[in-house]
Design goal:
Length: 432
């Protein structure tokens, strides 16, 4: 639990609790890197400008100052730094936090009144007055109908961040399932490793993430808080703002501070409607590529080396040593040849089905329930876990992506640092 979310929680707790008595349970050697920032590729850039990546909301230039001092003296607030560099930044802060790093996995949490005990994979346990869950992301949901020989032959890779070999034939075709930022990362990884062959990205909507560009901030939120709580009304308000002169990027950015309250106002049916019809459009506009990455992707498309297909996967099989991915499109079924198929559909969010002994135990013991639309966990104020009884825990808390069952925006550093600060202040208030 020592990725970016866990590290930020520890960093902020040490600012609020004195003396700190923190244990970060994380089997990996380094704290702060997690999945996103553990990359060793300099081509994998942040998709947020350096000026908005400080670990501390009250010190907005903290990361930028560190970046200039430790990596690039010429960096400015608009720079898109390598993610591995940001990982170093978080790692350095976590190392100075005073937290004890327990290199184990957690498999359960036993709660007794106002205290808890975290059960470790080796059979040991750690007593705690409060437990913060920061498990980050889980591998994508598996593709349907994958043949045994496709699995045994190493054709298919479920976890895009796993340690797997890329095709030995540098000119062979590769298929990436998904068209979001993870798929773009895999394209960059392929090219960095010398792959020259054609790459096809496939997703149900065929929408590629868009690129950042300079834009003047809007005068106010594109969707005012007085807007009727429905997906249609939110869309109409956004379109009206753009028609009245707001740049679409500025309109999207104007909602960073209000999207969670707007989401909370929606009835469950409207949330489902938004997820089904609008979320993919929002996602590609909200989670944008660094400009130089967007330019590289566009060059690949113009050169015919990258194709974007709209359709859904039916099955994956092998024939004569070659992979064949069958997709269903508006025109019928098609078969795509591939030497490598990488699942880039995004992290699994139904925590009732992911492979996690810890989450399985929390659900079984009634300490956790699924959030809205079955997504991650239901949480209350400050990230307190909602249990099967409907009450929020005073012992168990969640941070970052684990709060997506309640919050709309909860996966980016600007949102997680606010959560970490708020949670630290809340827990410090309990202890005082």
């Amino acid at each position: 639990m020592g990725g970016a979310s866990g590290a930020l929680a520890a960093i902020h707790l040490t600012r609020q609790v004195n003396p700190p008595n923190l244990v970060v349970i994380e089997p990996r050697e380094e704290l702060g890197r997690g999945i996103a920032y553990a990359t060793r590729s300099p081509a994998h850039l942040l998709n947020v400008r350096a000026g908005n990546m400080s670990a501390f909301p009250d010190m907005p230039d903290h990361f930028l100052d560190w970046l200039r001092r430790e990596h690039d003296p010429s960096a400015d607030a608009g720079s898109f730094a390598p993610r591995m560099v940001f990982g170093r930044y978080l790692q350095s802060l976590a190392a100075r936090s005073g937290a004890v790093h327990c290199r184990q996995g957690a498999v359960a949490v036993r709660v007794e009144g106002e205290a808890a005990s975290v059960v470790l994979a080796d059979g040991g346990s750690i007593p705690a007055s409060r437990v913060v869950l920061a498990l980050g992301h889980f591998p994508p949901v598996d593709l349907p109908r994958i043949s045994a020989d496709a699995l045994s032959g190493g054709l298919y890779h479920r976890d895009p961040w796993g340690d797997f070999p890329l095709p030995s034939d540098r000119d062979s075709p590769v298929v990436l399932i998904g068209t979001g930022l993870t798929a773009v990362d895999m394209l960059l990884r392929l090219r960095e490793k010398g792959h020259r062959g054609p790459v096809t990205m496939v997703s149900r909507h065929g929408l590629l993430s868009l690129g950042h560009a300079p834009c003047a901030p809007g005068a106010g939120p594109a969707v005012p808080d007085s807007t009727a709580p429905s997906a249609g009304a939110y869309l109409a308000a956004f379109r009206s703002a753009v028609r009245n002169g707001a740049a679409w990027r500025a309109a999207v950015d104007s909602l960073r501070g209000t999207s969670n309250p707007l989401w909370a106002r929606l009835p469950t049916g409207e949330k489902a409607r938004f997820r089904r019809h609008l979320f993919h459009y929002w996602s590609v506009a909200r989670h944008r590529m660094a400009p130089c990455i967007a330019e590289q992707v566009e060059r690949e498309r113009r050169a015919g080396l990258l194709a974007i297909r709209r359709g859904h996967v039916r099955d994956l099989a092998m024939s004569a040593g070659v992979g064949h991915l069958t997709i269903v499109t508006s025109g019928g079924t098609e078969s795509l040849a591939a030497s490598c198929v990488i699942n880039c559909t995004g992290p699994a969010t139904d925590y009732r089905k992911v492979q996690s002994p810890l989450l399985r135990a929390l659900f079984l013991d009634g300490h956790a329930v699924a959030g809205d639309l079955g997504v991650t966990l239901a949480t209350g104020a400050d990230g307190a876990l909602e249990g099967a009884s409907g009450a929020c825990s005073r012992v168990l808390y969640a941070i970052g992506p684990m709060r997506a069952g309640t919050l709309f925006e909860t996966t980016a550093i600007p949102e997680i640092r606010q959560q970490a600060r708020g949670l630290a202040m809340h827990l410090a208030g309990i202890q005082s």
